[in-house]
Amino acid sequence: MIMEFLAGGELFSYLRMSKSFPSGMVKFYAAEIVLALSYLHSLMIAYRDLKPENLMMTHDGHIKLTDMGFAKEIHNKYAFLSF
Q1: What is the CATH number of the domain that holds 56?
Q2: Is 67 tagged catalytic?
Q3: CA–CA separation, 18 vs 75, rounded Å?
Q4: Which pTM was predicted?
Q5: Taking the CA atoms of the chain, what radius of gyration do you get in angstroms?
Q6: Tens of pLDDT, residues 16-56
Q7: Catalytic-labelled residue, pool 9, 41, 49, 80
Q8: Which residues contact 6 (CB under 8 A, 6 or more apart)?
């Protein structure tokens, strides 16, 4: 598979270098992750491999989810509601 070049690199690398992020940065990245997962859920796709290594950054600092190998298409419309 081929992916576009993401000049920002892995979020994990930045986290490892800086040890922690300021709260504003954490809120920004958390919001972007929630929006991405919400979009996938609207398409009935469960992204099941969320970890910092799978979060890539664009050149302007936005998040992109990668590694959709464990993603699963949900055929039962109530699957997201069951615990």
Answers
A1: 1.10.510.10
A2: no
A3: 41
A4: 0.79
A5: 14
A6: 898 888 999 999 999 999 999 999 999 999 999 899 889 99
A7: 49
A8: 56, 57, 58, 59, 64
